[in-house]
Every structure is written in C-alpha cells, then in structure tokens.
Amino acid sequence: MIADLKPYAEYKESGLAWLGEVPSHWTVLPAFGAFKPNKARNDGMKEKTVLSLSYGRIVIKPAEKLHGLVPESFETYQIVDPGDIVLRTTDLQNDHTSLRVGMVRDRGIITSAYLALRALPGVSPDYGFQFLNVWDSSKAIYGYGSGLRQNLDFSHFKRMPIPIPPPAEQAAIVRFLDWANGRLERAIRAKRNVIALLNEQKQAIIHRAVTRGLDPSVPLKNSDIPWLGEIPAHWKLSPNRAFLRVRKDLVGDRHAEFMLLSLTKRGVIVRDLSGMRGKFSSDMGTSQEVRPGDLVLCLFDVPETPRTVGLSHHAGMITGAYTVLESRSADIVAFLELFYIAMDDRKLLSPLYSGLRNTIPKERFLGAKTPIPPEDERAEILIAVNEKTASLNTAISRLEREIVFLREYRTRLVADVVTGKLDVRAAAARLPDEELLPDLAAADDEPDDLLIEEEDDA
C-alpha cells in the first residue's frame, strides 16, 4: 500500500525553503492561525500529576525521579491537557539530537521552561503535532530562536507558514500514519526482541567465562562476596586499586585537539561533532583526557544508565561526569572490563551503591575485590570470549542497522505525508478497522545507546 502512494496533482509554494511546495488546495496559515500558547499556571497546586518530555513522549514522571523538587515549586509549572503539544524550546545551540516535540495524553503539569501549544479550531491536534514533529526532525527548528543558546519562544515562529489540509484530509493523514507507524513499529520491536535474545546469549557466555573460567570441572571456592558466589579455587581476589589508578587530566584550552568520547551500550565511542549530534557542554575545557587502554566508569545513578564500564580504544576527551582509570596491564584491564560488564548486565553491583542517587564512591570501587585468573588463563578467556561472541556481535550489528533503516524510512514517510508530498486519502479509506497499538512510534524513539549526559527533561 505504501509503495502505491503518489503525489498530488497540483502544488503551490509554501513560502518555506525546507517545506517546499504543498498541495494547491491546502490552506497556508501563519503559526498563530493554527496554534495558540497555553499559559495555564498551576496556581494553588490545582494539579499534582507531574509530566515529563522524554524522547518525544510526554510521560508521567515517577515520584522517585522528582529529585530535589518540593510541592511548592510545582506552582511555577504549567497545566496541560490531552491534545496539547509541548515543545522543549531551550538550548537549541548545543543540542541537535533530542526530540523536542511531544503530544500530551494525560492532564498534568510540566515545567514552564517548555512551550505548550493548543491547536485552534479547524486544526486537528494530531495533525498539528505531526507537522511540528516534522519541523523538529527535519532540523528546520534550529533556524529559529534567539540568544547565545538559541532559546525559542512562540514569537520567534508565530508567522511561520503552516500548511493545513481540509479537516477530512487531516483525519485521513493521521489515520494512515497511525497504521503505517504500527506496522513499522511491530517490525522494529521484533528485531529488538531478537537483539535482546542475542545479548542474553552474550551475557551468559561472558558471565560464565569471567566467574568460572573455561574448564567446567575446575574446583571452586567461596569468594565471600555475596553478589559473586563461587569462583575457581586457584583464582586470586585482589582489590581493584592493585591494577587501577584514577586519573583526571583536564584538557583545558587544548580541547579542540581532542575527539569527544562517550560511554554507551556499545562501549566507549567517538561522538560526531561535525553534525552536532547530541548535547555538548558549553565549556569543553572541563572535559578530561582519555587514552587508549583507559577504563571509563559511570559511577553515579548506576541503575538508570545503560553501561557502567567501557574500555577505551581511542584517544580523546570525555565529560567529567565519568571516572577515568588507567592500568599498567593491558590484559588485566581487558579482563576487568569483561568482569564488570557481566556484573553490570545482571545488576549485581547494588551492594556498592550509596546515597540518594545510588553512587559508587571511587574509593569503594577501588577497594572492591575482583577475581583474577593467572596470566595465561586470562589470555585464553579473552580469546575464547571474543571467538564465541563474534558471530553474535555480527548478527546484532546487522539487526541494529536494519532498525536504523526502518526508523529513517519512518521519519521520511511521516515527513512526506504531513507536508503533502504523498497523497494518502485513497489509501486511508482502504485501511482495515484494526485496533492500533497506542503511541507506537513514540515508544521506539528512545535510542539504543543512551549517553549519561543526555536527558530530554528539564
């Protein structure tokens, strides 16, 4: 059905370079003719349900994540209703990745740092959301705003042309996109489920190798570490400080000489600064140097981060939120990475947490004991794990590329339909009356590689 879509018969200029031509029978209104700001304040704490914009979704914020906020502070929040559209309009200069537009599904309150819009009569909230979402995903939003950090206000784009189809056509567009997003999301979820199974296989291989070794008949002994259990009798338990030393060399004025690194599920990766992908500190000089062979740790808010440890194969710099450790032994630090990946994957490090944010103090990590095999056995374990997981990594990478392709295809399809490049009226009329899964597209917008310094919510 999607392959059969055709353009409209006649077009006219929209007045926007990024939008191009729109169907000739669509009305083009300034933004203030399609939306109005919703400025309802939460005076007197009329509403208590706190909402959050997270990866393109407006979600109810759990009570445990309301760090440092007290009820009185919520009086400064704004009240939003289902159908309202929320835009995160701050920091356009430093963040070119976060999804900035979300549709409200639950009545509640959200920070007044965001802009809440309400569709005017004649404009479907769902269509209005889809258009603003395309404005965001096409990166056209970054041409607006003011100030050093390019903060955005409604006054900055209130005269921006908005193409408005007739009401029945808006409904057809929304219906078609719900159907198409559902099909694409099911395909993406199926691939993610396979990736999860492959990752479980990897975890089992790694966990077995770094806690029991390669010989299933080897005698075991109690490690006296509750979260670890038994280990081979001939392995030594040594504190991490015997192999690792914290190093924090700030790059200062030399920051332009370094690549920017981040710790993700795939390990320590190089960030793409050329496309401004992601959020970046306004003061790169506070970043710290990372050298090949350094172990990078995320020791704060551990349960909410995708990865606690990664071994860097790059020279670069990384935000001071991480802890950088150097080691004199390449094979020991590689084994330590595998060991703590295995512990992290199974969430076995909770005894090391402390404080409200579940932080692992550096000294506690350095004092924690790790089972260390003899040198020749360490080498055998590293080789065996690499061999046993190579085919799994290849399959996972292929599936991840396929998911990226499907996401890109979905983004392009939504943009073409919402901006009138494709006519879906006939296709929408032929759609079966099947039950659509709610908010499918948004449910997959959370990236696979979460970076600990990235967070959509203010």
Task: Report a brief summary of the structure.
The protein is built from nine helices and 24 strands. It has 458 residues and is of the alpha+beta class. Helix 4 (167-212) packs across helix 5 (330-345), helix 4 packs antiparallel against helix 7 (375-418) and helix 5 packs across helix 7.
Anisotropy-based shape: elongated
Percent strand: 15-25%
DSSP helix count?
Answer: 9
Oligomer: single chain
**How many whole angstroms does the radius of gyration measure?**
26 Å
CATH topology tier name of the largest domain: Adenine-n6-DNA-methyltransferase TaqI, Chain A, domain 2
Describe this structure in words.
The chain is an alpha+beta fold. Helix content is 31%, strand content 18%. The strands form ten sheets. Strands 4-11-8-9 form a four-stranded antiparallel beta sheet. The chain has a four-stranded antiparallel beta sheet with strand order 16-23-20-21, covered by helices on one side. Strand 1 and strand 2 form a beta hairpin. Helix 4 crosses helix 5. The longest helix has 46 residues. The C terminus is likely disordered.
Key phrases:
about 450 residues; alpha+beta; Adenine-n6-DNA-methyltransferase TaqI, Chain A, domain 2; 2 domains; 4-stranded antiparallel sheet; 9 helices; 24 strands; about 30% helix; elongated; disordered C terminus
Protein topology:
Layout: E1 11-13, E2 21-23, E3 27-30, H1 31-34, E4 35-37, E5 51-54, E6 57-60, E7 78-80, E8 85-87, E9 101-103, E10 108-110, E11 115-119, H2 125-137, H3 154-157, E12 161-164, H4 167-212, E13 220-222, E14 230-232, E15 236-239, E16 244-246, E17 261-264, E18 267-270, E19 288-290, E20 295-297, E21 309-311, E22 316-318, E23 323-327, H5 330-345, H6 362-367, E24 369-372, H7 375-418, H8 425-429, H9 440-443
Antiparallel strand pairs: 1-2, 3-12, 4-11, 5-6, 7-10, 8-9, 8-11, 13-14, 15-24, 16-23, 17-18, 19-22, 20-21, 20-23
Helix pairs in contact: 2-7, 4-5, 4-7, 5-7
